[in-house]
Amino acid sequence: DEYNKPEVITEVPGPETKKLLKETDAIQNTRAVSLFCDFEKSKINYLVDADGNKLLDCFQQISSLPLGYNHPAILERSIQSAAIMANRPALGSFPSKDFPRLIKNSLLRASPSGLDQVVTMACGSCANENAYKSLFFWYMRNQRGEELPVMGDEAFISCMKNQPPGSPELSILSFDGGFHGRTLGALSTTHSKPIHKLDVPAFDWPTAPFPKLKYPLEEHERENAEEEARCLAVVEDLIEQWKDTRPVAGMVIEPIQAEGGDNHASDDFFRKLRNIATKNKIGFICDEVQTGMAITGRMWAHDYWGLETPPDIVTFAKKMLSGGYYFSDEFRWKDGYRVYNTWMGEPIKLVLLEKVLDVVKEQDLVFQAENTGHYVVNGLRQLEKMFPELLSAIRGRGMFIAADITEAGKRETFVKKLLQKGVLLGVCGDHSIRLRPSLFFTPAHADILLDKVEETAREM
Amino acid sequence: DEYNKPEVITEVPGPETKKLLKETDAIQNTRAVSLFCDFEKSKINYLVDADGNKLLDCFQQISSLPLGYNHPAILERSIQSAAIMANRPALGSFPSKDFPRLIKNSLLRASPSGLDQVVTMACGSCANENAYKSLFFWYMRNQRGEELPVMGDEAFISCMKNQPPGSPELSILSFDGGFHGRTLGALSTTHSKPIHKLDVPAFDWPTAPFPKLKYPLEEHERENAEEEARCLAVVEDLIEQWKDTRPVAGMVIEPIQAEGGDNHASDDFFRKLRNIATKNKIGFICDEVQTGMAITGRMWAHDYWGLETPPDIVTFAKKMLSGGYYFSDEFRWKDGYRVYNTWMGEPIKLVLLEKVLDVVKEQDLVFQAENTGHYVVNGLRQLEKMFPELLSAIRGRGMFIAADITEAGKRETFVKKLLQKGVLLGVCGDHSIRLRPSLFFTPAHADILLDKVEETAREM
Ligand code: FES
């Protein structure tokens, strides 16, 4: 197998990539483009670029390929099921007769404990947007004791003009550093970077501080607990303060804040957050778009928390291939068309997800993510000791791992040098790097990664 | 060919569909489900349901299949290209090396006149949401003369808290009866039915009246022109009135308001609307999610208008298979990550679109839509004369055709009876029926449709 180490044969990005960039720039802004890919030549953990460079891909299309490139089982399933693509249904109104079976064999096999309802969406943003809507419906149903106002109620008229009471002044509480998508509702709960939000009108909704913890968590328990207690108190205050203006209908959190910088909090923090929601009768949405599907060493990252009451809603996308959300019976809407759109996701994604779940189970990839994660974190901590001016704050759960680049302004150079050595990783927050590899990332891949990081560190 | 007439063998919905409904209801609300489909047995204009009923499908998955079910060229292309699905890219950062060629051979072949930029999205809602964002970026750039504020500006800080000046109080002007999607930003410009909006917080943005015209348009020109003049005056007033609170950054309109009831306006109305936007230096978004791709007898419905200045942005989805929007150079954002998300649409959709465009061109389907449209409108007008208590306000452009069911409360019965005779059509607004067939709908299909409508009318 020649796919056992990276091979870089040109400067990265190379001449072919630069040519393609120029072509593409004629039709849209290309500043976010890193590489052009040769998908045919890519294989599991190795991405081959347009210039023929073979890169160990620890980012995997922004964490969205669970089994890497061209996994034979996925490839085979894609080819077998291609006809499904020729007839994309309006899934909310005209599903295929296979749909109930398909949902059972895919999404329902991965249901988070306590949540037996699920709806598909086409991406993580509409998953969150519709989760918020489900929460507003639930909140208003609780207020009035009925799914809908009585016939002739002014709410039916005022909502058509975006005015209360039909368009109620309710809010979703979110956290500094959180990321939940870029459509206007989701973006109002996103607080990752100014460039994501600048110049876009936003709902005036409350934002709570997310704990800024010291890593490793186990060495700073006392001060971290204080910081978490501070944040929890603010959450309670905000719920109280907003009661008379825009009541908080629910809160949304990521188990690990990803885009915002891979910020962790303790299981205890999340348990307490859940209890605050329960106590105040507001909804609790767990956004597992990036943390879901095995990568953290659990199927869902919130499995670690040991909750008494499950989240009300768990949203997903990326590695799940389909967007969507799980929810409890209480959050079912009672009228059709309240959560609805033309496509409502796409069945082919579930057909592929079914196979992904087979492979994850057969090969025990949840355990492998946990296991390899320990190996990588240990390796990075060794390097942190050797190069403290370069690496710090190593943190992770399973293979969902990040580190800070200690010296300000050095991150881009580090990532670039590493890429030139054939290792592709992602960045997040202002000064962090992150690993989001496929579920087939093993200690053997980790050794290559750690070697290249060490080599790079020596050069910096 | 046995696919030349509908064949109904059970009550519709039949026993198998009812069984599947019950199964599905265990995992989500199913009130919006009309039928379960047997896609394998379906063919172009004929949808076969789970009970084996063969239906003439004039709705085509909510207007989203351009060439109908299992078109051989699309089927073949799907199978050939299946591997693409196994490697879904993060298209904004890691596109395939084929991407520039693919965009050229698909979307750019269908570019509306004057718009040479295009970006892909995964659905119509995010197409509109991101079009709004592009418009806000453009508006703010014009305000300050630079793409971004100077370093250290308070906008960078305030936007992280959803507060102005970073999250500016700007608005999008939309129209009564308009539909632009169901995510919170898009939904704030949607005014179709209360059930789409009720209980969801909305931006306080201006809504203008959309002309309520008399049909046929050509027989009511004078009074329709007055009604349009009234609406245009309100638009100008609203732009003026909102200047000091939430300035209007742009407006969004559908060439024919679809969900809201297939409401038409004259080409002159749209030309004047465009001029109002130009004069006030606000953006003009034409939402062609439902009207795009040949069905109106033009590639884009706004081709009929004879605009001097093209729209600033044209959004698409549905029959285009991919979501996205075309835009002029002036609306290009200058920084990466301003219009961005993980998937940014999906290349397989463009691979299929390329083939759709080949077939549309080879078989002159734009002309066929126009031609068959005349035939159907004439046929329906005959029936309107015979059954004025049932049918009225026949209106259409190409095969984008609707009629009102004259007697209040009779629509659901009419649609149900027609379905039982093997003809499936859609509804819109409070009392309209709509046709959204594939581009292969010919006068032969129209004859079946007209016969069945006549039969049904006699029974009512
Ligand atoms: S908003 Fe999710 S696919 Fe468009």
Give a verbal description of the structure.
The structure is a homodimer of 460-residue chains. By secondary structure, chain A is of the alpha/beta class. Chain A folds into 2 domains: 153 residues, Aspartate Aminotransferase, domain 1 (Alpha-Beta Complex), CATH 3.90.1150; 279 residues, Type I PLP-dependent aspartate aminotransferase-like (Major domain) (Aspartate Aminotransferase, domain 2, 3-Layer(aba) Sandwich), CATH 3.40.640. Chain A is built from 14 helices and 14 strands. In chain A, helix 10 links the parallel strand 6 and strand 7. The two termini of chain A are 33 Å apart. The mean pLDDT of chain A is 97. The interface between A and B is large, with 126 and 126 residues. Bound molecules: FE2/S2 (inorganic) cluster. FE2/S2 (inorganic) cluster sits at the interface of chains B and A.
Task: Describe this structure in a few short sentences.
Chains A, B: Its EC number is 2.6.1.19, 2.6.1.22. Chain A is an alpha/beta fold and 460 residues long.
